C-alpha cells in the first residue's frame, strides 16, 4: 500500500527507560551474582504481586512514598497501588505466610518497584531492588551472616577496595539514655548528621538550641563522632563512653562479637570497619546497621545498606517478627562500574560468530554451531550470505570475540579458520574428531594464559 | 504496649499470588535455563517499561486485551497502561531503536505482564512471558534457529519426549489461492479448526455454507488435513496439493529446507514434525509457525509457540521489520513439571545444613561454612543453639540434603560428622587440609554414582 498512514510515535514515558542489550547484559550479570551469593547462604527466592490493596501499602511508607505511589481503581473498583519498595510487601507476606514458612525465614527478593518521583533529580520512576532478609531470629549469627553476605557479594561483583561500615543503633541510644537526651534524640541525630558539612562547633550549638542539650551534653555526643582507630581501639573507646548504660553496653558487645566473628571467617579488618557516624533510618532500625562504600568512588554513597529491626510486620500481625536485612543498590553499582570501566561495551552475549557464505554449506555451519554450543560456547550464525567484510563489521560492532570462517575450500578439507576479532590473527583448525582443535583454538583466544 | 491496635488484614488481590520459595525456586531455575539457551544462540536480553502511553498499547492488541488492560492517569495526567504482552512493547522498542541496534536483531525478553482477566477460568492477572525473536531478516536460517532453540530449550529443561510441530502459513494460503478461496479464508479456517471436534463431513458442510465453497473445493481443503506419514511423505503430498501456486510452493519449499537443516543439526525426526493442522494467530503469522507438545501430557496444549511475521512495527514506523520468534509458556510448563513429578519439594536453595551447638564454636562453624561455599556448596548455618533434634527437623522440612554435625568433641579432634539427611547415614570426616575429606563426603551424598 502506498497510502501514507498515521503512525503512533514510539516513545517511553518520562522517568521510564528501555534497557538495550549493552545495558541489560551487565544488569543481568549483577542480578545473577547477587542471586548466587544469596543462595550460597541459604536465602530462598520469593516474589509478591506488583499490585496490592492500597491500604496495605499506604500505612507503612512515609508521606512521600504515599504521595508518589501509582494508585488507581482496578476493574473490580478496588483501590490498588503499585509497590514502591520490597519491604512493605515482605511485611505483608510474612504476616500472611509465616506459619507455613516457619522461622528463621531467609528470603531474597529481586524485583521492580515504582515511584512517581520528581525526575529532575535524575531519578527514575521504575527501578529494581535487590533485598535479602533473615526473619524471626534475634541471634547475632544473623547479623554476622548479613555482613558476610555483603562482603562476599562485593567480592563476587568484582570489587576488592570496598569497606562495609558497621554500627549499632543501641550504642547511640545508650549514650543518649546515659546523657538523659533520649526524648530529643531526633533533634540530636539531625544535628549530628551535619557534622561533616558544618563542623563540630555549629553542631554543638544546634544541639543546644533545638534539643535543649547542655554544652557538656553536646560535647559528650560529639565525642562519639570523634572515635576512630583500629577496631580494638574503637571498641575500647565505646566501652568507656557508654559505660553504665545497659543498652549502650549491649550495642558495643554486639559490635565486638560481630567484628570478631567476621575476622574469624576470613574478612580482613580493612573491609569491615566500625563507623560510629552512620545512623540510617532512624525510626526503623534498632540494632546493627550497615553501609558499604567503594574505595575508588566513595562519593556515590553506600551501595549496600541495611540493618536490624525489632518488628517487621506489626501493621499486619500481632506476632513479633524481628529480623535483619540489606539491599544492594543495583543502579548505583552499575553506574559506578560504568565509571570505573568495569563494564565491557558489548551488545551480544555470544562470543563466537559464524559468517554465512552459501546455502549449500548451511548443514555444516549448523553442525559447527551445535558442536561449539555443546562445548559451552555461545554461538551466533549470521543468517544472510552477505559479503564477509560486512558480516565481520556486524560481528565487530556487537562485540563478538572470535569468528569461525569456513568457506567451501576450508569445509572441503574439513577445516576452518579461527579469527581473533580483537587482534585480527587467524589460525587454521581441523573440524575432525569432534572439532577438538577448533574448541582449543577458541578457548585460547577467550581465556589467554597471562 | 498491651493496647490492642487495629491490624490491616494481610491479603493479596484476587487473581494475584505470592510466590513462596517452593514455587519460586523451580520458576527461577526454568527462567535461568531459558536465558542460558537463548544466549547460546546469540539472543541478547532487553527490558522495556511496565507502564507505556495507553496509545502505544491500545492499537495493537485485540478488543479483549484493550478491555483487560490496567489503565489509569498518572501523576502528570498522562493516560497510561500496564503492558499486557511483550510483543507490543517489542514493536514500539524496535521502531524506536532499530537504527542504533542494527539488524538482524536477536533479543529475548523475560518479564511480567498484566491482564484484568476473568479469574473464573483459573487464569492469573499477573504472569510472566518468556519471548525470543529475530528481527530484520527474512532468511530461513532464522526459522531454522528458532526451531533449534525450542528443541534445545525443551531438552535443557529436562524433557525428551516432546514434539515441535511445524507448519507454514503459505501452504494453506497457497492452496486457498489455488482454489480461489482466498477471500473466504477466515471462514474456511474457522471451519477447518473444528475438524477434530465435529468430523470431516460437517466441516465440509460448514465450508460450503459459510465460505461459499463448492463440495469439490471443500474436499480439496480437507485433503490437506488428512496428510500424514514421514516428513518426506508429507512434503511430497504437499507438493502435489499446492502445485501451481507460487505461494504454496514457497511454503512447502521452506518446510523442506527447515526439516532438512534441523535433521543435519542433529534433531531426530520424531522431535520435529510437520503438522499441517496447526494454524495459530491467523492475522499475525505469515510463514513458519511452531507449536510444542509434551509426549507425556499432550492435553495441556502447546508449551512453546511462535512463528514468522512480515511486519512487526507497522503501527509505529514505516520501516518494514520482518521477524520470527516464539514464547515459552512458563506457567503451563511448571504445571506440567509439577504433574510429572519433575519438581523437587524443597524450600531452601542450600544443600548443606550446619547445626549450631554453642557460641564458643561459632568461629569454627563460620570457617567450615566459608570453606564449603568456596568449594561451590550452598550452606546454611542455623542461628540459634536449639536442641539438635529441633534443628534437624527444621533442616528436614526445608529439604537440606546434608548436615555437618560438629560438637565440642568433634571440633577438638578437628573433625565433624557428615549426616545424609535422606538415609540418616552418618560418617566422620576430617577438617584438616582444607577440609578435603569433608568436601568429598558431601559430594558423595549429593551426586552418588549410580
From TrEMBL, chains A, B:
Q: Cellular component terms, GO, for this chain's entry?
A: cytoplasm
Q: What is its EC number?
A: 6.1.1.21
Bilayer-crossing residues are none
The listed locations are: Cytoplasm
Keyword Nucleotidyltransferase among record annotations:
no
Binding-site positions, L-histidine: 85-87, 115, 129, 133, 280, 284-285
MF terms (GO), sorted A to Z: ATP binding; histidine-tRNA ligase activity
What does it catalyze? tRNA(His) + L-histidine + ATP = L-histidyl-tRNA(His) + AMP + diphosphate + H(+)
Q: PROSITE patterns, alphabetically?
A: AA_TRNA_LIGASE_II
Q: Which Pfam families match?
A: HGTP_anticodon, tRNA-synt_His
Domain Aminoacyl-transfer RNA synthetases class-II family profile as annotated: residue spans: 1-355
Alphabetical list of InterPro entries matching this protein = aa-tRNA-synth_II, aa-tRNA-synth_II/BPL/LPL, Anticodon-bd, Anticodon-bd_dom_sf, His-tRNA-ligase, HisRS-like_core, HisRS/HisZ, HisRS_anticodon
Please provide the Gene Ontology terms (biological process) for this protein.
histidyl-tRNA aminoacylation
Q: Which Gene3D superfamilies match?
A: Anticodon-binding domain, Bira Bifunctional Protein, Domain 2
Look at the named UniProt entry and state the broad enzyme category this protein falls under: ligase
Alphabetical keyword list:
Aminoacyl-tRNA synthetase, ATP-binding, Cytoplasm, Ligase, Nucleotide-binding, Protein biosynthesis
Membership in a protein family:
Belongs to the class-II aminoacyl-tRNA synthetase family.
Record HAMAP family: His_tRNA_synth
Question: Subunit composition?
Answer: Homodimer.
Q: What is this protein called?
A: Histidine--tRNA ligase
Q: Which organism is it from?
A: Bremerella alba
Which lineage ranks, top first, belong to the organism behind this chain? Bacteria, Pseudomonadati, Planctomycetota, Planctomycetia, Pirellulales
Q: Which gene encodes it?
A: hisS
Amino acid at each position: 500500500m502506498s497510502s501514507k498512514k498515521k503512525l503512533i510515535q514510539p516513545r517511553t514515558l518520562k522517568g521510564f527507560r528501555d534497557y538495550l542489550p549493552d545495558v541489560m547484559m551487565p544488569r543481568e550479570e549483577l542480578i545473577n551474582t547477587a542471586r548466587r551469593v544469596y543462595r550460597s547462604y541459604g536465602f530462598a527466592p520469593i516474589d509478591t504481586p506488583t499490585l496490592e490493596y492500597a491500604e496495605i501499602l499506604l500505612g507503612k511508607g512515609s508521606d512521600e512514598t504515599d504521595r508518589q505511589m501509582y494508585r488507581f481503581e482496578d476493574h473490580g473498583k478496588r483501590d490498588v497501588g503499585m509497590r514502591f519498595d520490597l519491604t512493605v510487601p515482605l511485611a505483608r507476606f510474612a504476616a500472611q505466610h509465616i506459619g507455613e514458612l516457619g522461622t528463621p525465614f531467609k528470603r531474597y527478593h529481586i524485583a521492580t518497584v515504582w515511584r512517581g518521583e520528581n525526575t529532575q533529580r535524575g531519578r527514575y520512576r521504575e527501578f529494581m531492588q535487590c533485598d535479602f532478609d533473615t526473619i524471626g531470629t534475634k541471634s547475632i549469627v544473623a547479623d554476622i551472616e548479613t555482613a558476610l553476605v555483603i562482603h562476599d557479594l562485593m567480592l563476587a561483583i568484582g570489587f576488592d577496595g570496598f569497606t562495609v561500615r558497621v554500627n549499632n543503633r543501641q550504642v547511640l541510644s545508650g549514650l543518649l539514655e546515659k546523657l538523659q537526651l533520649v526524648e530529643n534524640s531526633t533533634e540530636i541525630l539531625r544535628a549530628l548528621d551535619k557534622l561533616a558539612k558544618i563542623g563540630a562547633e555549629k553542631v554543638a550549638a544546634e544541639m543546644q538550641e533545638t534539643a535543649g542539650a547542655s554544652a557538656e551534653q553536646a560535647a559528650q555526643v560529639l565525642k562519639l563522632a570523634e572515635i576512630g582507630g583500629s577496631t580494638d581501639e574503637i571498641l575500647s573507646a565505646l566501652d568507656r563512653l557508654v559505660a553504665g548504660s545497659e543498652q549502650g553496653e549491649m550495642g558495643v558487645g554486639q559490635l565486638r562479637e560481630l567484628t570478631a566473628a567476621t575476622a574469624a571467617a576470613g574478612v580482613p579488618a580493612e573491609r569491615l570497619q566500625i563507623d560510629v557516624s552512620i545512623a540510617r533510618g532512624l525510626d526503623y532500625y534498632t540494632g546493627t546497621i550497615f553501609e558499604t562504600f567503594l574505595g575508588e568512588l566513595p562519593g556515590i554513597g553506600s551501595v549496600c545498606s541495611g540493618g536490624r529491626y525489632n518488628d517487621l510486620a506489626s501493621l499486619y500481625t500481632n506476632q513479633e517478627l524481628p529480623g535483619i536485612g540489606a539491599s544492594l543498590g543495583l543502579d548505583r553499582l552499575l553506574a559506578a562500574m560504568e565509571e570505573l570501566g568495569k563494564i565491557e561495551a558489548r551488545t551480544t552475549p555470544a562470543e563466537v560468530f559464524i559468517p554465512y557464505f552459501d546455502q549449500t554449506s548451511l548443514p555444516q555451519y549448523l553442525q559447527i554451531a551445535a558442536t561449539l554450543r555443546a562445548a559451552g560456547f555461545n554461538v551466533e550464525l549470521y543468517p544472510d550470505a552477505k559479503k564477509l567484510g560486512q558480516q565481520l563489521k556486524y560481528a565487530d560492532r556487537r562485540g563478538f570475540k572470535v569468528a569461525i570462517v569456513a568457506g567451501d575450500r576450508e569445509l572441503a578439507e574439513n577445516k576452518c579458520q579461527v579469527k581473533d576479532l580483537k587482534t585480527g590473527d587467524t589460525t587454521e583448525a581441523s573440524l575432525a574428531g569432534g572439532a577438538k582443535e577448533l574448541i582449543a583454538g577458541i578457548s585460547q583466544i577467550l581465556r589467554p594464559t597471562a
